[in-house]
Amino acid sequence: MKNAILLASGGLDSTTVAYxxxxxxxxxxxxxxxxxxxCVETEWSRVNEVLPTSMKKPERFDISDIFRxxxxxxxxxxxxxxxxxxxxxxYVPYRTMLFFAAAAARAQTIGIFDVYTGxxxxxxxxxxxxxxxxxxxxxxxxxNIGAVRFSSPFRYSSxxxxxxxxxxxxxxxGRTYSCQAASDFPCGACPNCVDRLDALQDARLEYSDTKVG
Length: 213
Hints:
6 helices; globular; 5-stranded parallel beta sheet; alpha/beta
């Protein structure tokens, strides 16, 4: 049986990858990073709830000290009644690079050499470290320094593509959590929430068209 590590956040993308790997018979070790995000406890609760029941319980790693004092609104929660939060305010510098490095180190430590992520190609202004080009370059760099291999199955996909796959696999979409701006409930206005709502709408319309056709 193939073994793999999965960067799991409780969000739609990584949870869909989890269900896909389970369907392929892969033995998954989920890992979760507490990097100081204000929604960390909500994410941790959801990741324990939404992963396939047959999967190992996620390991939690605290790397929050690195971003202590960050002005990012993903670290320091905004008052959504008072504050005007822009896309750029949610940027956390080098976060993806840090995740890749920490995951590669954990993988090699426990003798697993395949690491999966749910990252998709991002068009948001500041998220240069979530683009397909960035992830490809980072993967190539890691290929040159160790045996760990990274796979991001949705790196060229749209959020609608992910929703389609989630529905096909029976992912509990409604219980996943991907909001950037609020720690307890989806705000509906941050980039992640907007992408998610648009994708769910697109997938629903496609389903309706198929039923009518």
